[in-house]
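Final report, closing paragraph on structural work. Over the funding period we assembled a curated collection of sequence-structure pairs, and we close with a single example.
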Amino acid sequence: MKLAVSNIAWDAPEAEHMLAGLARAGVRGIEVAPTKLWPDWTGASPSAARKAALRFSEAGFSVPALQAILFGRPDLLVFGTAEQQAALVEHIERVAALAEGLGARVLVFGSPRNRDPGVLSADEAMDRAADLFRRMAERCEPHGVCLCLEPNPGRYDCRFLTRWQDVVRMVERVDHPGLQAHFDVACVALEGDDPAAELARGGPMPAHLHVTEPDLGPFGAPSLDHARIGAAVRARTYPNWISIEMRRADDPLSRVLEAVELVKRCYG
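Its predicted structure, as stored:
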């Protein structure tokens, strides 16, 4: 199992302590929310990304993926004006260049409020979004990166691509190597679907997978059946990174190590 932890689980001053603890626990990947490294996107550049990759490497980690890629940019809208859509495409290319510098191959596209379809019908929204996602995929591919669509549930204020099968249909429709599917176990469950059953249905192999609890909570008293979901992941012979995504909690290292232990036991 290729196991990573997202850096949203700690604050910047805690990073050195967290990385040391994760390295001792055998974690080898850090998923990066860019604004955790470059607040407000200030200073985010390919050269800065390469320097950050070196620091992670020296600590024993690679960077498999980026997430929160539209954080702080509510103006970048999938269903916005032509100018807003063009700005979104340009931003995604910028983030793809950061990912390339960090050595990452996946951009997780969640951002539920940035993809609100407004009054569009489901078919109209799929038509418009498919064209835009293809444009973004075409910008990602030259950087060796794929944009990975994440189903987000209504509980997270999402109104488009809320279910795993919605994401599957979009990826199959766009049919471009720069656009892939991302599986988040809590997101799937919160929309009323069974994560283990959805994985067992086959379909495209997820390019990335988040192990989560609802609302990105801690794993001390999990509400999901991670043992059953993990068995479904293994049955698919899933080959890609598994990343723990959780909000910062009090005593973050203990909480994250608690999650690492659960994921190793259930998904490894």
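The mean pLDDT is 98. The chain has one domain: 3-267. We thank the funder for supporting this effort.
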